[in-house]
Amino acid sequence: MIVKLIKIGNSLGIRLPKAIIEECHLQPELTLIPKENGIELKSISIPREGWKDAIQNDIEGRPVAPLGEWEW
Predict the structure, then answer these.
(1) Distance CA 45, CA 49 (A)
(2) For residue 69, how far is the Cα from the chain centroid?
(3) How many Å apart are CA 48 and CA 31, to the nearest integer?
(4) How far apart are CA 4 and CA 12, in angstroms?
(5) CB–CB of 2/15 below 8 Å?
(6) Residue 69: which pLDDT band, with cuts at 50, 70 and 90?
(7) DSSP 8-state symbol, 6
(8) What is the pLDDT at residue 11?
(9) Residues 9-66: pLDDT tens digits?
(10) DSSP-assigned beta bridge partners for residue 52
(11) What is the domain partition of the chain in residue ranges?
(12) Cα 26 to the chain's mean position, in Å?
């Protein structure tokens, strides 16, 4: 895919097509990494993102004993 640099204020930028943004699962904030022959864009990963939901989904339907009543 070919894109053109466009003037944005005193800088230059590119427009990313919606299909590319969706296919790459890009988030609103990106990390820009300079490479020898270009640049790499990466979504910023949030540490422990989704852990709460994963744990909740894992324990749903399982009986959870109150503290002090565990059997080993």
Answers:
(1) 8
(2) 40
(3) 18
(4) 10
(5) no
(6) low
(7) E
(8) 96
(9) 999 999 999 999 999 888 888 999 999 999 998 888 777 777 777 777 666 666 655 6
(10) none
(11) 12-59
(12) 6
Decide which of 39 and 72 is more confident. Answer: 39
**DSSP code of residue 58:** H
Amino acid 37: pLDDT: 92
Sign of the torsion angle spanned by Cα atoms 20, 22, 24, 29? positive
Residue 59 φ/ψ region, left for φ over 0, alpha for ψ in the -120 to 50 degree band, beta for the rest: alpha
**pTM score of the predicted model:** 0.52
If you write DSSP's letter for every residue of 13-47 in order, what string do you get? E-PPPHHHHHHTT--SSEEEEEETTEEEEEEPPPT
**Token duo for residue 71:** 């059997």
Instruction: State both tokens at 22.
Output: 């969706």
Give the separation between CA 47 and CA 71, rounded to whole angstroms.
Answer: 33
